[in-house]
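pinned: reference chain
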Amino acid sequence: MISSGVLIGLKTLTGLVSPLTIGIVGPLLALSRLKYAAARWTYRLGVASLAILGISALPVVAKLAALSLEGQYPPQAIAALPRVDVAVLLGGATRGVAEPRLEVELGTAGNRVVHAARLYRAGKVRKILVSAGGLAWNGTAVAEADAIAAVLMEFGVPQVDLVLERHSRTTAENAEQSQRVWAEQRFTSGLLVTSALHMPRALGLFRRVGLDLVPATTDVTVTWPIVGGPLDLIPNATSLVLFGNALHEWIAIAFDRASRIFSQQSFR
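pinned: its structure tokens
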């Protein structure tokens, strides 16, 4: 498993190449150089940084970036999904108890939990495997799997039908740890429940460890039409976040592929 220090470093690196960071740091660097030399590159750096920030915050650009991922595995009606042994539900869906919050709350990806409960209540799965550990960069050692299980039980899923995997901290570890639990529980078929934006990377990692799951996509952010009016051509903070999330996924996919190639080369 990757150390907590390396995980925090990767998260930091992703943040440093985000459009928001570039848009802020670029102009500041350009201005800091102006008193030493009125070089053209400082002006170009500032303009390019602001352009990246502005373009990334355009709703139409952010939607297209997200659609490049979400369009790979569109959501299916629950009735169209096969009956399987287990739904593998990935974390990142809740906000834990922390003052002044008094109870576990569903976060921006909370529909993952709702969708898993719907699948269970529709009789599509016998068990729900919750794969979600503690996140070192969030300053908590409490496994999110327990918080998600509490919400699922509120939704009517019996505790006996919940299998908790509390050790994973990344999507790659979700796949590795779930594969171990899968073998222990002797599951033979399953659905993967995660956000549409996250599904391409997650499904690829699970298939790499030998789990050929059926995607049960939820938490879709991009809806039609892509351009619904003039506001979709005006930059806003929400679109900047969406573009950043899509960029994060593409960077993570590239990193996963590079690490796989490197590991293969090291064994030759």
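why pinned: The first strand starts at residue 84 and ends at 90. The first helix runs from residue 4 to 16.
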